[in-house]
Design goal:
The chain is of the alpha/beta class. The chain has helices spanning 19-28, 42-51, 68-77, 96-105, 117-184, 190-220, 233-250, 271-287, 331-336, 346-352, 358-368, 424-436, 447-456, 473-486, 506-512, 525-531, and strands spanning 11-15, 35-39, 56-60, 86-90, 109-112, 229-232, 254-259, 266-269, 293-308, 311-324, 373-377, 383-393, 416-420, 440-444, 461-465, 495-499, 517-520. Helix 5 packs antiparallel against helix 6 (190-220), helix 6 packs across helix 11 and helix 13 (447-456) runs parallel beside helix 14. It is elongated, with a radius of gyration of 36 Å.
Length: 534
């Protein structure tokens, strides 16, 4: 006996101008768990297809007014019944000619009368099984769509939460780091300098943790896209060594770099993400190495040429190895590596700290660069972390750090700046930095006040916080742009957004709202200098 997977039974349409024939078909199939819908003519059959969803139709060919051929031809013209399986039944049309005509009309089979029960039952069972499989597939697809919608909604909710938390945490952090940098420029005794260093280190450590969490979440939700820019590999590695040399020196560790001769200097890819992986691995190596050395080795695995949009592109795959003489990793510990929020052991976490996200992020980034990551280590005998990444060979001329003729300090031009910021501490941080750079600054506590001040005074640039009470930065920007348009101003004032939201797409979103650029809090003075050089 046939069994359906839902409460609703499959429906079979039976069409014949003689009621006794309909009853006979039902009798032959009475142990099938189906519902029969009768039709005494082709017209009745067509009406029934608009009211019901059928698994199968069994139609007599010879009927008055509209025969079976005409009925099926009509059904095949409708989207709803275009693929409805139809079995013709006929007492007189038994020759091959009529069988072929029935198939050409759109039927899947033809059974001659008198009907042999086994033949009818066998063919009906096949089509009922197909129908039930189709219905189960539709059910699964519907569940997948619901699950997909829920996942997308969850991702959207998480993105909103991350944006909110990023703003709420970065706003006070901007004040902490900003004020610490301001204090650095004042006269301090040795004890005060030590306290300030602790504040500065703690603030930057907290910022690193926030960045790790945001990075992991963005990668996990597919919000990270790699850039493809030309860069000098040797130059980038040199910057990393300079950054970490002090930390290694404090532990009296030797920090070595070995780059194979066949490694190309000029390549194209995402240099920032590459540096992120290298800094993470080198930082870990320095952290977990009490004495000895840390070595970065870079080699070339292979080189190939591929066709991309009709042009040939040269690819090179590099391997990066970070080797240390540190504490090593146990077999059990190696199993936990590269997992999110995981440290090899709780004692390690307590002693050395960290979110346990760095290696998980590095694993995802190396995968995005068509590479992989791994480790070779033995407890007490040091570790060798390695990863591979693919880049394009670049013919571009790269200007190394220090070779640029353009000064990295602020130009002598003094600007009239309108600072729009509701947080008092962040006002002070921005004011100090802008005044130190020689600019004149007016402060507005929200977008409404900023709009009034913009109409009364002349400014060269507006630094606009995004989230503020009364009127936020986006609404204020819209109103300023409307005023400029109404007054026929050809050169709109540059508006630079200041926001603690560091999520992907924020810059593009703010520019689409009428702003010119974007700076993320907490910002560095050099970042501000670059934005104000226009």
């Amino acid at each position: 006996m046939m069994k359906t997977q839902t409460n609703e039974k499959p429906k079979i349409l039976i069409v014949d101008d003689k009621i006794e024939n309909l009853v006979a078909v039902e009798k032959l199939l009475d142990d099938f768990n189906v519902e029969f819908i009768r039709a005494l003519s082709g017209n009745e059959a067509i009406v029934s297809t608009f009211l019901n969803d059928f698994a199968l139709a069994i139609i007599d060919i010879q009927m008055p007014e509209m025969d079976g051929y005409e009925t099926v031809e009509f059904l095949r013209q409708e989207d709803r019944t275009k693929y409805l399986p139809v079995i013709f039944v006929s007492a007189i049309y038994k020759d091959d000619f009529y069988v072929v005509k029935g198939i050409e009309t759109g039927a899947v089979d033809l059974i001659s009368k008198p009907i042999q029960p086994e033949i009818l039952r066998g063919k009906v069972k096949v089509f009922l099984d197909l129908y039930l499989q189709k219905r189960e597939l539709e059910r699964m697809n519907a569940e997948l769509r619901i699950a997909k919608d829920k996942a997308e909604a969850a991702t959207h909710t998480k993105s909103l939460f991350l944006a909110s938390m990023s703003h709420e945490i970065r706003t006070p952090l901007n004040g902490i780091i900003g004020m610490a940098n301001i204090l650095k420029g004042t006269t301090l005794n040795k004890e005060q300098q030590e306290y300030l260093d602790i504040i500065n280190i703690s603030g930057n450590n907290l910022l690193a943790i926030i960045n790790d969490i945001l990075d992991f979440s963005k990668i996990e939700s597919g919000q990270v896209e790699l850039e493809n820019m030309a860069f000098d590999l040797h130059n980038e590695v040199e910057e990393i060594v300079k950054l970490l040399a002090l930390k290694a020196g404090e532990k009296r560790l030797e920090l070595h770099v070995e780059i194979a001769q066949n490694v190309p200097g000029h390549i194209s890819g995402d240099s920032l993400r590459l540096k992120q992986i290298l800094i993470n691995l080198l930082n870990n190596a320095i952290k977990f190495t009490p004495s000895g050395s840390v070595t970065l080795k870079i080699g070339k695995l292979n080189q190939s040429t591929i066709k991309d949009h009709g042009s040939k592109v040269k690819k090179v795959k590099l391997i990066f190895r970070v080797i240390d003489t540190g504490i090593g990793i146990s077999e059990e510990g190696k199993k936990k590596l590269f997992r999110a929020f995981s440290q090899t052991e709780s004692s390690i976490s307590r002693k050395f700290g960290g979110t346990g996200l760095g290696l998980a992020i590095s694993k995802n980034l190396s995968k995005m660069m068509n590479g992989e990551i791994g480790v070779e280590s033995e407890e007490g005998k040091g570790s060798k972390f390695w990863f591979t990444a693919e880049f394009e060979l670049s013919d571009a001329v790269i200007v190394r750090s220090g070779e640029s003729k353009q000064s990295e300090t602020v130009s002598g031009k003094t600007l009239n700046v309108l600072l729009v910021e509701d947080n008092v501490i962040n006002q002070k941080v921005a004011l100090f930095n802008l005044n130190k750079l020689g600019h004149f600054v007016d402060v507005a506590e929200n977008g409404k006040i900023a709009l009034e001040m913009f109409q009364k005074n002349r400014y060269d640039v507006i630094l606009m916080d995004v989230i503020m009470p009364i009127m936020d930065g986006i609404e204020a920007t819209h109103k300023i742009r409307d005023l400029e348009k109404r007054n026929g101003i050809k050169d709109p004032i540059p508006i630079i957004a200041m926001t603690a939201n560091a999520l992907k797409g924020e810059r593009e979103k703010l520019i689409s709202e009428g702003m010119n650029e974007y700076i993320s809090k907490p910002f560095k003075t050099e970042d501000l200098i670059k934005l104000l050089r226009f």
